[in-house]
Amino acid sequence: MNIHEYQAKAVIKEFGAPVSRGKAIFSAAEAEAAARELGGPLWVVKSQIHAGGRGKGKFKEASAGEKGGVRLAKSVEEVKQFAEQMLGATLVTIQTGEAGKQVNRLYIEDGSDIDKEFYLSMLVDRATGRVAFVVSTEGGMDIEQVAHDTPEKIVTFAVDPATGVMPHHGRQLAQALGLVGDLAKQADKLASVLYKAFVEKDMAMLEVNPLIITKDGHLKCLDAKVSFDDNALYRHADVVALRDITEEDSKEIEASKYDLAYIALDGTIGCMVNGAGLAMATLDIIKLYGEEPANFLDVGGGATEEKVTAAFKIITSDPNVKGILVNIFGGIMKCDVIARGVIAAVKAVGLQVPLVVRLEGTNVELGKQILRESGLNVIPADDLDDAAQKIVKAVKG
Ligand code: ADP
Ligand code: MG
């Protein structure tokens, strides 16, 4: 689960991380009041959407002005003017895709005098089973370029969960960022504060880009992006309360109601598969034969007919879907359950596009028979390769 920048900052601030003062607002009038309260002389008006690259983003509407999604303002009037321009407008960044995202809330923040911009992030390194820090002196809006051109400028170290953050981690952080004296002490504190926040809140990722040194010698988290481990949300009611479903894909929200592992993609072939590994292999083979998948979907091992029906409805609700591939290897999952679910869903929502079904495993004959006798226009397939070729051919016409 993702949250907005201002929420992420509030979370890490609770643990003692240095962030600027600011206020989230929903209207230009609120923006003006927030600007007065903060006092200036410099403010930053920041679009709150669940995507990065806002600073370099562009609004679709000409009325939103030429500047990006993060704007420096030098007066209360300017804050208000930017808020009027940005609220309701659609911001396109490198992470939103072409459609962009509507900006419905802004964060009005104290402007900082920046001396240097660093990069810091933390994530769960599955290879070592540890929380890793990823840091670079080359922070700011071009970090992707740094990672591509000069990867040696990115330093990584991991923390053993048995010990937690130790003084040597603080020193490693300071050294990686070239900090000495008081700034090194601040880096040491920051490492332990952020690690504590990460672990206690069950974060999956925390990115502070930029982490800055202010002209008066303080480290500050100027941007913050946090995503939480969904499997641990049950023990963080306070985190769940931060969810903004207007930022999420409506198909993914629907899927989460049925506990389906669904991720929307940009392609044309809708996929219903059981097992994450088989689902990924299915996406790969669709690409191999020259088409793009419209989604990742793992219906899981113990899916009921109701769940399969819901999954099928979600797939067909995507207007980009030009064909559907059902690929089931029945182990715990039974092929006849899938067949009944598919038929129930088609009866409910109709079938406008070609449907290829590949069934194998438990109750396969029964499943095939149910589909045959349904009278539905199903294209049967024998194996994964056959199924992929058939759906690609059907879609290409
Ligand atoms: P994004 O990463 O989505 O582009 P950031 O929050 O990192 O958004 O903002 C982009 C840039 O704007 C930062 O790299 C920084 O240079 C500047 N900036 C952001 N917040 C402030 C602030 N409070 N004071 C001064 N400059 C800021
Ligand atoms: Mg940033």
From TrEMBL:
Gene3D superfamilies from the UniProt entry: ATP-grasp fold, A domain (3.30.1490.20), ATP-grasp fold, B domain (3.30.470.20), Succinyl-CoA synthetase domains (3.40.50.261)
Natural source organism: Chelatococcus reniformis
Ubl conjugation recorded as keyword: no
Pathway: Carbohydrate metabolism; tricarboxylic acid cycle; succinate from succinyl-CoA (ligase route): step 1/1; One-carbon metabolism; formaldehyde assimilation via serine pathway
Lineage, uppermost ranks: Bacteria, Pseudomonadati, Pseudomonadota, Alphaproteobacteria, Hyphomicrobiales
Lineage: superkingdom: Bacteria
Keyword terms, alphabetized: ATP-binding, Ligase, Magnesium, Metal-binding, Nucleotide-binding, Tricarboxylic acid cycle
Protein name: Succinate--CoA ligase [ADP-forming] subunit beta
Cofactor note: Binds 1 Mg(2+) ion per subunit.
Catalytic activity: succinate + ATP + CoA = succinyl-CoA + ADP + phosphate; (S)-malate + ATP + CoA = (S)-malyl-CoA + ADP + phosphate; GTP + succinate + CoA = succinyl-CoA + GDP + phosphate
Residue sites binding Mg(2+) per the record: 209, 223
InterPro entries: ATP-grasp, ATP-grasp_succ-CoA_synth-type, ATP_grasp_subdomain_1, Succ-CoA_synthase_bsu_CS, SUCC_ACL_C, Succ_CoA_ligase-like_bsu, Succinyl-CoA_synth-like
